Amino acid sequence: MTSNRCAVCKILNETCVQGCISAPHFPSNDTSFEDVSRVFGAMNVRKILVDLNTPEQRQIAANCLRYEAEARRRDPISGCHGMILHHKSILNNIEQEIESTKNELEPYVGSDRMPNFFDLPMPEDFLTTSASLDFFVEKIKSLNAVQKNQLMQLPTADAQMIMDKIFWKGEDQKKDEDGNGPGADGASTTACQ
Questions:
Q1: What percent of the chain has pLDDT over 90?
Q2: What family classification does the UniProt entry report for this protein (predicted)?
Q3: Across 51-71, average pLDDT
């Protein structure tokens, strides 16, 4: 049975009993526990899990310990605080880009028809999923165009209208029956001199 010990019992060199409190959260093949153990210590992790009452609380605590350990591995000085500052900087840059884009779009669509962009909602399962943020990045990447427009509160028709106004500015430039504009077949639309 020693080969099926959970990661905490392996580090503490204990036998893993049937109802081991740390086994569901740190199984024997958990590679992230090495970082957690370096930062917090295996005995402290066990104490934290024992002090919590429900399995849901233990799962949230285990994931929080993983996040902090991963952050400390990446940035031993700042840890999660450094990650927060980094992500705030990224969000600030994105907000500035959105404002710049809104200023560029306003002459085409008018100030009353400008799309509103809202913060992404915090997923309900954020603290109970795996420690990697890749899960959420993949979730956002997997959205189709309609879902992305819904997330940004931008109706599909408005998005198409905005794109048409930007790329087909002139009244004389009309789309053909296939929805293609001038020069869509690769031919130049400018007169050669």
A1: 12
A2: Belongs to the LOB domain-containing protein family.
A3: 90
Task: Give CA angle at 123 (156, 142), nearest 5°.
Answer: 50
Alpha-helical (H) ranges within the chain are: 7-12, 33-40, 42-51, 55-74, 80-109, 134-141, 145-151, 156-167
Distances (CA, A) of 154 to 18, 94, 117, 164, 186: 52, 17, 8, 15, 32
Residue reference for tokens 């997923």? 123
Answer whether 101's CB lies under 8 Å from 63's CB. Answer: no
DSSP string, 156-189: HHHHHHHHHHHH--STT----TTS--TTTTS---
pLDDT for res 43 = 93
Under 8 Å between Cβ of 68 and 79: yes
- How is residue 53 annotated by DSSP? -
Quick check: helix, strand or coil at residue 132? coil
Tell whether the model's pLDDT for residue 31 goes beyond 50: yes
Say which DSSP state 192 is in. Answer: P
pLDDT at site 106 = 82
In angstroms, how far is CA 112 from the centroid of its own chain? 31
Band (pLDDT 50/70/90 cuts) for residue 156 is low
Identify the burial level of 42 via C-beta atoms within 10 angstroms of its C-beta, where 0-12 means exposed, 13-18 middle and 19 or more buried. Answer: buried
